[in-house]
Amino acid sequence: MSAQDHSLRDPPDLPRPFRPSGPLMQRNSAITERRWVQWTLIATAVVFLLFFLFLPLVAVFAEAFRNGVSTYLIALQEPDARSALNLTLITAAIAVPLNLVFGVCAAWAITKFDFRGKSLLISLIDLPFSVSPVVAGLVYVLVFGAQGWLGPWLLEHDIKIVFAVPGIVLATIFVTFPFIARELIPLMQAQGTDDEQAAVSLGASGWKTFWRVTLPNIKWGLLYGVLLCNARAFGEFGAVSVVSGHIRGMTNTLPLHIEILYNEYAFAAAFAVASLLASLALVTLAAKSFLEWRYGDELAAGRRH
Question: What is the Cα–Cα distance from 175 to 181, expressed in whole angstroms?
């Protein structure tokens, strides 16, 4: 048999797959943990969620219905509870739309234009994240209180800010206004300005460009930020507690009303109102989870940038 025939029958040696060894093998083993390590981390997370999230939530609803459904409904229909619920809804209905307008304007300015003080504006937007809500409430008392900077002028004109609904709304706006802006800024930065420039080059006005181009691109991130803002507005306690005055039936939101009931040892009523607030939070969480599941790629793209 000739050498040429032998080469036709026996295929040439194929390259063997690369198998890492030594330090490279150790590096890959660090990336892919052992199975027991994975299960330990998962079990630790589940235990923490069970004891610090799920069980307290179950306890709230169990205590709320301990004395029966009739007691539960009576606690929710009590005039002070209905007043607290109405004030909470009114506060959120005012604070969230105002924060929506501010968040869109701030995100638009930061991502679409270059100007002096941009980094300062971003830092100011993040300020409520670093300032205690109680301190924010004290600032409003210092400015608008009877002994504050504007207090004498407000008393002279019979205008009530602190210990009234306007103060509660202002405090809620302060602690919630970063949520929408910080949700939109990375999303709009990731999208860039190419679409807007193309629309303007085709003759679209700035207002039409916003409604036809920018808003459709950010609508799901905007809704996500609104949900987060709304959840914080419902549950805010520290800043509202300082500026409300704790006037029953007038300036108590749901969290403040729950505190008063608990301090008066009305545990069944306190847990009943707490379950109502928890239900509002669960509805918000469900909407948030749906957005993450349905439009997770779009939201994640913005956060990565």
Answer: 13
Tokens representing 32?
């892919």
Q: How many CB atoms lie within 10 A of CB 111?
A: 20
pLDDT tens digits for the chain (305 residues)? 455 454 445 555 545 554 455 544 444 444 566 788 889 999 999 999 898 888 988 999 999 999 899 999 999 999 999 999 999 999 999 999 999 999 999 998 898 888 888 889 999 999 998 899 999 999 999 999 888 899 899 999 889 999 999 999 999 999 998 999 999 999 888 888 888 888 888 888 878 888 888 888 888 889 889 988 999 999 999 999 999 988 888 999 999 999 999 999 999 999 999 999 889 888 888 887 887 777 666 555 545 54
SS3 percent helix, strand, coil of the chain, rounded to 5, is 80, 0, 20
Vertex 231 angle, CA 120 and 176, to 5°:
20
Residue 270's nearest CA partner among 87, 91, 80 is: 80
pTM (whole model) above 0.90: no
Both structure tokens of 104: 């869109």
> Of 219, 220, 227, 226, nearest to 288 (Cα)?
227
Fill in the amino acid letter for 161. Answer: I
Place of tokens 């007691």: 71
